[in-house]
Design brief:
The protein is built from 16 helices and 17 strands. It is α/β, with parallel strands linked by helices. It has 3 domains: 169 residues, 3-Layer(aba) Sandwich (Rossmann fold); 69 residues, no CATH class; 207 residues, Rossmann fold (3-Layer(aba) Sandwich). β15 and β16 form a beta hairpin. α2 packs across α16. The two termini are 20 Å apart. One of its GO terms (molecular function) is transferase activity.
Length: 470
């Protein structure tokens, strides 16, 4: 009796979601269960270098109206969320439209018109149906259909719910009655109305995220949602990736006599004044050095930020700041073609292990560091006034995903530049006060045990295939 291996197509519509499924336990767990894995992707990444079977999606092209309707769908959905919840914070997720060119202006005007026309629950359903109908008419859809007819996978697993390029492949799978599963990519995605892709089933990080998915999207049933956790944090638990401190310091030209903290940079949209925060932290560390503390600051920029906006601060505080670049590669002009390399997984894990704390503005790096029982300090003041004077409070902490905190003491809040030095001193003397609360937050956001996410995903996939084929 011959044994037929199960085949899974792992749909990677952009490079950003690559690290969760190519650099973690995900692939090996599939191999252990007898799956044949094919990465079906639209990225310039070299899958051959990792020895992975892959199939490139050649020149995917959306229907010309889909890009407009994607923006319409998001705007209407956020309008609906704001009305349902009676909460204006959802309006903060609406980004301004572009009028830089004639083509962009026409699209923006059409977006505004259609948003006005379809701004209702009924209109929202109509927009979603129209997007599906349009994408089902494209040559891209026909190409996807032909690929799936040829290869006949047992499941198509989409690694991100927020890319419209994934719509046609999943529609083609549905046409052939191949079950589809979609992974919700990030902890902040659902309140921001980023569900561009619909599937037969969804994998989410936690019970909290499952509640969000069902709360915001009434067309999804509870039986369609499986809580798996995310593979994103699995590398932190792989002992083979964790280096001795001496080796990590030598490879990165660090001084073993210095205690380093990590400043984790944000993207320019989230934190346009980020270089000023880096300056304030570096200034505080310099003052502590002058008091006799042996301290340094490692700067890890946001991986998709290749700008020169930090250069002057790094130069001014060269005695304090040690830049360690994320190991990502720019393979195209768009943000989703800036791809992580496997070495960055090791770098981040060891950075969290061998530094005393992380400092940033509202980043999920709080979770990377609490895995290693290291505290996080959040910048909690802004420079939005014309005089560039610090004012307490940052709007990002009003966002819905921060309401998942079990309490305020999950991090140390830096409410003014003058607070930074004394807060760092307190962290160095007593690093633990916020760690227990941060652990509770992490367990709420990501299903424990966190190092079993890939196992739970494959449990989910196997259960879905069995259900759909019996």
């Amino acid at each position: 009796m011959s044994f037929k291996k199960k085949k899974a197509f792992i749909l990677v519509p952009d490079g950003v979601s690559l690290k969760n499924f190519a650099y973690t336990k995900f692939y090996n767990k599939a191999y252990e269960r007898g799956f044949t894995i094919v990465f079906w992707h639209h990225t310039p990444f070299d899958f051959d270098s990792l020895g992975f079977s892959h199939l490139a999606i050649e020149q995917p092209k959306l229907h010309w109206l889909t890009t407009v309707l994607k923006n319409v769908r998001k705007r209407v959905e956020l309008s609906r969320f704001a009305k349902r919840e009676e909460d204006v914070i959802y309006n903060s997720y609406v980004f301004p439209l572009s009028y830089k060119t004639l083509k962009a202006s026409v699209r923006s005007l059409l977006t505004n018109l259609l948003t006005f026309v379809f701004d209702s629950e009924k209109g929202l359903r109509s927009v979603r149906r129209t997007i599906q109908k349009l994408e089902g008419q494209t040559s891209y859809y026909k190409h996807c259909l032909a690929v799936l007819e040829e290869h006949r996978p047992d499941v198509v697993y989409c690694t991100s719910q927020r890319n419209v390029l994934a719509i046609a492949p999943l529609l083609a799978a549905a046409k052939l009655e191949i079950p589809t599963v979609c992974f919700v990519y990030s902890w902040d995605n659902l309140p921001k109305a980023t569900l561009d892709v619909t599937a037969d089933y969804y994998n989410v990080w936690s019970q909290h995220m499952k509640h969000e998915l069902l709360h915001y999207h009434h067309f999804i049933n509870e039986s369609q949602v499986h809580v798996t956790g995310t593979p994103q944090f699995e590398p932190h638990y792989i002992k083979e990736l964790l280096q001795p401190k001496e080796r990590f310091f030598e490879e990165n030209n660090l001084n073993l006599d210095i205690t380093y903290l990590c400043y984790s940079g944000d993207d320019v949209t989230t934190s346009p004044k980020d270089p000023m925060y880096l300056r304030d932290v570096a200034k505080a560390i310099r003052s502590l050095k002058n008091k006799g503390h042996s301290l340094g600051l490692i700067f890890r920029r946001c991986p998709v930020d290749f700008s020169d906006r930090y250069d002057s601060v790094i130069e001014e505080y060269a005695d304090v700041i040690v830049p360690i670049q994320p190991i990502w590669k720019k393979m195209g002009g768009a943000w989703d073609t800036i791809l992580p390399l496997p070495e960055d997984v090791t770098l981040l894990s060891n950075l969290a292990l061998h530094t005393a704390a992380v400092i940033n503005l509202g980043s999920s790096m709080v979770f990377d560091f609490v895995i290693h029982q290291k505290p996080c300090l959040y910048m909690n003041y802004n420079y939005f006034n014309e005089a560039n004077l610090p004012e307490q409070g940052v709007y990002v902490y009003d966002y819905v995903h921060f309401r998942s905190k079990p309490c305020e003491d999950v991090v140390i809040w830096l409410n003014h530049p003058n607070d930074i030095a004394k807060s760092i001193e307190a962290v160095l003397e007593h690093p633990s006060p916020t760690i227990s609360a941060a652990n509770l937050w992490y367990e709420k956001i990501n299903e424990p045990p966190a190092n079993s996410a890939s196992t739970r995903i494959w449990n989910s996939i196997e259960a879905i295939i069995k259900k759909e084929t019996t």
